[in-house]
Please model this.
Amino acid sequence: MIDKDVVSVEYHRTGNSTNTDRLGMRDMQARVYEKRNSKYLLVKAPPASGKSRALMFVALDKLANQGIKKVIVAVPERSIGRSFRDTDLTSFGFYEDWKIDPHYDLTSGGEKSNVIRFVEFLNNPDARILICTHATLRFAYEEVADDAKFDDTLIAIDEFHHVSANDNSVLGNALKNIMHNSTAHILAMTGSYFRGDSQPILTMQDELLFDKVNYSYYEQLDGYKYLKSFGIDYKFYQGTYLDALDKAIDTDKKTIIHIPNVNSSESTKDKYEEVGHIEDAIGEFMEKDPETGIDYIKRNGDGKVLKVADLVTEEGREKVQEYLRNMNSADDLDIIIALGMAKEGFDWPWAEYALTIGYRGSLTEIVQIIGRVTRDSDNKTHAQFTNLIAKPDVDDDDVTVAVNTILKAVTASLLMEQVMAPELKLKSGGNGTRKKGPSAIVDGTENEGPSISVKGLREPSTQRTRDIIENDLPDLKAAILQDSDVQKAIVANVKPEIINRDLIPKVILQQNPDLDDEELEDVRQYVVAEMNLKQAKKEETSDGSGNGKQFIRLADKFINVDDLDINLIDSINPFQRAYEIMSSNIDSKAFRRIQQSIDATKSEFSEEELYVIYPKIKEWVLANHRKPGKDSNDEIEVRYAYALAKLRDLKARKKAQNGN
Model:
């Protein structure tokens, strides 16, 4: 396996991010604690930086000193609730330990009983801290139906990218209403400040209300004691991924292997058989431990026995998960094989290599997987993410451009930048009650975000179809593009009318068998309209052989990154019967350059305006003894910060043009 990486980042390894101060706080936690008096606080920091404990410090201070009576911590999944269990803080210098009443730990039990206990918690004057899932918070909010019930409460939302500013997001609406109709404080935490569906997390108006603490991947890793670099690599193959496994797996590294979704073109459709093929590529299966469920594999070549955790197979999976929870050394495990698990919130600090097989349309998912291997541990100095993808059936130059775009987007995301374009919102343009389908784009509206009125597009006839159109279209479109009959029809150049009239309704009914004819037509029209509006040269569907163009489509969804005049591609090397694309190294200087380039695109300035504003910036720096910050709530300071970034960017470009 070639060690040259698509992205290779070098770090100083100062140890600062893991050292603690007199209160037992790491660097990032101390930054958050400095803002503990903020009513609304947004913390953007990577995995393993200590966000959970940062919340504990702030929450305990608000309970002790700021008049807050209750703390509600909401996590996306029950398993992540373990991060907020009882924690000893006083032994390390803080004045109080974090303790949870088991009765108000709602990360187990049924949803109905959890909602009852949530309401009980709000009404119990002696109850202080509650842990629940995002879903429980949503259901309980609807049950309470009174924003004032959250007065004098701190609501802490972990993995904040699950929230959406979309009008149809229950959690997003709950947050907005609580902010504007109660005295509640909000602490939002995330390691990826964007959503996989491209929806904004907060409206611009609401985001301005938040004080912010940004702690980037670079700052976190720069302070690690052991991990000094990580890389990103894209390997393309032809045929089936099973034939390329032996070239992609590195059994010398503690590895997490994610197999493709069973509905994707890259899947063999038999996930259990794929696990067997992967274990065969590793070596000879010896036995499955009946107590732990761990597979023992004798490695090809030297015969070393490796411990493999199969999280794909349902039978015995609880034993495997229990074993993973209780690991305490690097020797306890060598490889994890997973499908939907071992991503967000999963903690295996010794992991150093993530091999992800198949196209991933969600940038959030990519960043979350990278986070699984970038934790500091004494068993590794380098971490690696590799995406093994079927070679797209397009020109190699297009693939190279797409890779470079994605690399810029991933790197920007590690700097906690929002780089996904908002989704278009379709609405009826009128006169569409009995139209056969949409006929024309007639306007775009500004008040509701990116939206398009389509003449002839009928209004949804029932609440059921409205819910599908507003919430389920991305999944429905994915199912259509992955349907074998649709793929065959596209390859055979079947007339679009036949696909739209016959094949697409078939898939809609497979996904929603309860729809009647009228409802089916509602959904069909919106699906066809949105797919046609988004059709472009680089958004053609898969050809059914695994050589689809989804990878190109992902690159097309990014904004801002095209404005970054940065080339991360260094070379293209042979791999299997296709190739792997390599990039030049990214170091701290490159990270700063990317951040500067991003900031330079966030506000428009004429050269004349820059000449006028520069002396004002110098005066501001002299008066405040620091440079202006882009995360300030002062609009003038933010504009000064972006103007300074623009000036630096222009200076760098002119130097490059002059060869100086």
User: Anything to note?
Assistant: The radius of gyration is 26 Å. DSSP finds 20 helices and 20 strands in the chain. The chain has four domains: 17-215, 223-394+570-586, 425-533, 604-658.
